[in-house]
Fold these 2 entries.
Entry 1:
Amino acid sequence: MQFDHILQYVLSGLSSGAIYALIGIGFSIIYNATGIINFAQGEFVMLGGMLALFFLQLLKLPLWAAIPCAVLVSAAAGLLFERLAIKPLRQPTPINLVIITIGGSILMRGLAMLLWGKDTHALQPFSGETPIGVGGATILPQHLWILAITLIIIALNKYYFYHTVSGKAMRACSYNRRAASLVGIDVRRMVLISFVISSGMGAMAGIIVAPLTMTSFDVGIMLGLKGFCAAIIGGMSSGMATVLGGLILGVLESLGAGLISSGYKDAIAFIILLLILFVRPQGLFGKSDTERV
Amino acid sequence: MKRELMKFLLFAIPMLLLPLALQGGYMLNVMVFVGINTMLAVALNLLLGYAGQISLGHAGFFGLGAYISGALTTISGLNPWLAMPLAALVVGLLAFGIGFPILKLKGHYLAMATLGLGIIIYIAFNETVTLTGGPSGLSGIPNLSLGGFVFDSDLKNYYLIWFFTLLVVLFSLNLAGSRIGRALRAVHDSEVAARVVGVNARLLKVQIFTLSAVICSLAGSLYAHTMTFLAPASFGFHFSVELLTMVVIGGLGSVYGSFLGAALLTLLPEFLRAAHDYDIVIYGILLIVMVMFMPGGLVRGVPEIYRKLASRRGNAADA
Amino acid sequence: MPLMLELQGVTQIFGGVTALEDVCFTASAGDITGVIGPNGAGKTTLFNIVTGIYSQTSGRVLFEGRDVSGLPPEKLATVGIVRTFQNIELFANMTVLENVMVGLHTRSRSGLLACSLRMPWAMREERQIRGEAVKWLEFAGIAELADVEAGNLPFGKGRLLEIARAMALQPRILLMDEPAAGLNSRETMGLAALIRQIRDMGVTVMLVEHDMELVMDICDRIVVLNLGRKLAEGTPRQIQDNPDVVAAYLGVDE
């Protein structure tokens, strides 16, 4: 196998890895604020892509306007989801939360199917399709967009969590929800914000990936699960560990698809997911827990 | 004990007489599916409703049973009656082996892990083309037969499937009412308390996971031999969610509830033609509404509403 | 008196924080041993180690001379080490009778298949379990509540149920974590009588308790923990007269 090929796989793996990282951070933000794994996370990724398409093609908005509109509408959907399905839950046991977020997930998927049909659509690339040579490999301008936007979002995320009052309150919640509420942090509001941020981030991931991989009403399951896998590798961190997790997953998947078999490409992510959950549930980079119960 | 038997007969006898009322035809075929789905929902309920452990990968075990039976009978020419237990054995061993690491996980993590497991199995159905026929499916699976009697009509299949369904229901009712069922509920309520009074929670969870998978495998084999054709699409994530919906609607921890949920979800698209396109929207709404307003499912929720209405009427009469 | 339980240099460190340090003491068979100490002394941690909920960082736990360190709770329960919890851990969605019947789980054998097929011996065993469970409810004085869902019990009755469930295992040693917490004075008196009765049945008792009156009243021996270390050990009399113990409780610096 030539070096050029490997380089090519790594490069395209990095860009899908960046997408998984964004989705994974979305999972982590909600998990850290609430203890919930939001099974509907992938649907916000789908919503982002489908809404961008909708604003671009049906409402004829320019790209620079369609993207923020799609993100805003998705974040609003995240807000509604929290208010209508999560907050009113009387018995928020893990099983009930799993069932209700799955319910929300397939409901969103179903509505998207009714609204936009079952077809697969391609979003136009942000700036052309002329490949750029890197070493012996090539990448598309869209790959660069993905990496750049991911970097910007991660930087913004970092700023929010470490330099704003609301972000610091959010971190306090993730350490200890009860203590946070005792010092006057409105935990319910933090839960709401976590849903809004992560649905917005998921939507952004869905938008930037849509020109490469196409989008349809049912892309949410796979992308969501892979994002979750990234978050698990990163030990449910909402920072660099999950970014690394996403990149590792993206590259492994791309190498596996290229060198072994493309049919099993999706299975690779799930095998990694199971292995990590079985062997190192605290993530690749986390410390082990002493608690047994 | 007598009451339990009466209840079972009240369920079983109408099911055995139903074909007389339906007079053959299409509805009989639909009722075959109700039977298969009842077995699956009961199996998932043993795990979810009694032991409190979620699985989003049960469609995978169902599919494994179906495909192993299908492949053994078409490719190796094995007798279906032999293929069925063989498939159950393989699925049982797989579930037992993976049960130990997977059931160490709790709640959300367990849900994700079983979901991942289900999808890996689903991908394998699509990719192992030489065994499964891949996405285009596996056809020519033989019907079951006894001596010269071949189960090849809707009516024969109805009795074949419902014989096994009633067996699974009875088996599960007995189990639920026994020391094992009690220990499962104890683990569900408080795992730490169950362990300190000597219940080996870990082993018990793996055992019930295995039993549940074996029932799914059996249902899968029966499905393969009555349909005679298999395609991967029947065994994907979507079907796992459908099973979950059946169990939640009927009532967690109620065997009869699982029948109710299975019947409702299987019949719904038949009575509501439009429901066919909207099915995932409907499942989504049902899941959310049930968890929010009727967490005990129909078997508990409906009598409760009835009692409330009756007492309100009683109050009105007093006034 | 033969030794029932022996702790040898038990140390527990949680992420750099030492919860227990080199704790050594013994509990004799047939005694009621009290473990007392100010908040944060490590009493509950000690119980969690003895009953297999935590495994200690170092040190050994011997039960009737046999090393049982690191065994899981379900294994310890079958060899005879059974506990109750400070906040009562009941099976809330099951009836009072069923709770005790779970306590008899390890003393019944019928397997999955025998249960599902309603084999005659499984049914016979089930009747035996039921009968014995009723006996333990009568022992704890809550037989009339047999069909009540455990989650609906008042706190004091829940405590009695937890004890009945533990006794159904016929333990060699019963560890009770703050059995009097949340009980009123009449219930506490009943509890003291019950604990004595348990001891008289030949079950060794070890309890963590804050109610000093109860501890001094019923305990044969007392172990005092402070900040994760053993501070003193002796009869109630000796402990009451020990200046170190008094200082620890009053927070006097030496």
Entry 2:
Amino acid sequence: MIKRLFITLVLIMIAIIFLDLAVNYRESTSLSALAHYYVDQGPAEVGAANLVTAVVVTYRGLDTLGEVTVLFISAAGVGLMLRRDRKTGADENSDARMRIHKPSSEIVETATELLLPMVILFGIYVFLNGHLSPGGGFQGGAIIASGTMFLLLALPESHISRLLISIMESLSGFSYVVVGVLGVILAGGFLDNRIMGLGTFGSLFSAGAIPLIYAFVGIKVGFELSAVLDRFREDSDVS
Amino acid sequence: MNALPLSTIVLCSGFGLIMIGLWGMLTQRNMIRMIIGFSLLDTGIHMVMIAIGYVTGGTAPIIDAAVPAAKATAMVVDPVPSALVLTAIVIGLGVTAVMLSFAVRIHQTRRTLNIDECTESKW
């Protein structure tokens, strides 16, 4: 009872804070000084049409590297938590898996065969055009992982190679850092995108290293999220 | 009285989601429901951040034919909160995945999702 009282009290107090913030909130009518600089100088300095991408990949590139690291650690944590005990034996498990998974319907299987390449292609499109249109490495990676989800729903028995996932993941993560270090050597600083020519503004091969970085991020995120989904799938077999 | 500005509506919905999420995390005893509460809280915070970055009459900060670079500063919303939310979404996803794996593991070893039955770390 006293606990409920405390919870209500906490919620009421937070509600008062929020109410105060909401009532006194005034929509801003012009950009802040920092945003003004990014919008004003971004197209010339970075060459990316999508200014959010310019901020994420170049101005705040180190944050994005940290973000990729956090995602990697969480994927590793999920892998560690849902690790399968080797002792239970692989054969026994695969038998159990056969019994548990009902085969999915013909329609779902055919649709997956038809749509999976397109979903993955769309993911690649989204991360390659991250500097021109809404989208980017994380969004593209998430779309690729949704393709994996599709595959796991339609063909629960399908095997996703752990080795391939870890090789691709470490390779793309490593390349990302290499591109960042190249920025220190060839251009102004870590993750500077001007190691390659800025190209024509608004074309696919523009904005220096941004498409390259986003491709690495997209591949890394796609494989990482696929690995997480695969872990959750495998785990449901045992229990 | 004229209509509420767009960003105020988004801001208030965000605050509402934060409240619902907090309420869920504090009152629910089922771990999955607590995780759902966390996700709601997370989404609410993202909405608040996006609302703060809105500039009256602004459009997406993407330079193209409709938003020429020379006039962009007067036409676009703040790109910095958008970039921050992009980061926050990914981190939220990672945290949720780890929480769910904890829940799965606890369910495997104890056959329960009730947080009240996990008392070792309670003081």
